[in-house]
Amino acid sequence: MCSPSTEAARWMRGLLLALALATGCAVGAPEFTCDECTADQVCWEAEMECTDLCVDRTTCKEGHACIVVDQQVACDVRCDPALCAPDVCSSDFGSCIAVECSATRACATPGDGCDQINRECYPVNGDCSEDPCYQFSAVSPVADVTCGADNFCHLEPLPMPPPWLDSFDPSPDLALSAPAPGQSFAAASDVELSWADPGTSVIAYILAAIPQNARSVAMAAIWGIAVPADGSPSAQLADGSAIVGGVWTADPVTLPVDQPLYAFVFTLSHGEVKHLSMLVPFRIAGAWAKLGDVCEGATHLPDDCFNPGAVQACRDRRCRRVCASHVDCADLGLACAEAVAGVRICE
Q: What is the maximum span of the chain, computed from C-alpha positions, in angstroms?
């Protein structure tokens, strides 16, 4: 097995390059100048836009007001949601688009709820006897919504694909067999990673957080090892190296306790990602969050209430069960509330 080396650093650079190319990396944009504006436009330097002169808002794009810009009357480059209602702005600088529902447009079918993220309607009771279950995008990182034999929608916890790689499928050729999803170790020295042997060099990581993009992978890593093609497809903590701020070090390996950690392995060949695993959550000591635990809110799932065996979310500083139908909440004596920020909670 390899210790941190030039080869590992080269692999890491190759990974970041390959992942950045797969997801689109930021590039420098040409500098805006007012010279781009025509005679019938006003230069709006604050927004770096040229905008058309107007008489009233009927001469502007739908959803855009006619306002005073730099002592001239011109179209606002920003879309005004009030001018689009009950439809919505396609983006801050877009136009109005028709939607199935919104904050000012109720669903056509009485009793349906509105997913305010996607502006689509769904049956609040979770009935799927006639139509497929509605898939909530806010829940999709942690669960799949499936139609049960009872003709009601239910949530199934999902394995965790790396969230930054929509264009890559985790490979069964590199599946992690250890740790088991949700496994809790008594001590860090008990941690061992094992994976299917892909017949090529592998980099294995332990991450302290779920990286949201390719460039944050290295910063999320706290332990790593580079394993050559002829190496054993497994590693214990003592075999690898501590990673601090994206840098492989010779420091003693110390893993945090009582918090979620994530095992992740991948292969590279000539700077290209060939295989990668799911993220496998585990922890050292402590227990996974349970219903009623105190938590801090988050803008996306998984959050403080993450539990590999149950779909939960933080709401009003408490861990709550996420649901897809009233049936999901029946054992708690509760009902499945309408979606808030794309997530339904038993209340």
A: 74
User: What's the helix, strand, coil split of the chain in %, to 5?
Assistant: 15, 35, 50
Q: Which of 32, 97, 13, 40 is nearest to 63 (CA)?
A: 97
Neighbours of 287 (CB within 10 A): 10
- Measured in degrees and rounded to the nearest 5, phi and psi for residue 193 equal -105, 135
Q: Collapsing DSSP states into helix, strand and coil, what is residue 227?
A: strand
pTM of the model: 0.60
CB under 8 Å to 41, separation ≥6 — which residues?
A: 50, 51, 52, 53, 74
Strands 153-157 and 143-147, bridge-based pairing:
antiparallel
Q: Exposure string (b/e) for 121-157, b if CB count within 10 Å is 16 or more?
A: bbbbbbbbeeeebbbbebbeebbebebbeeebbbbeb
Per-residue pLDDT tens digits for 210-236:
877 767 788 899 999 999 989 999 999
How many Cα atoms occupy the beta-carbon half-sphere of 3 within 13 Å?
Answer: 4
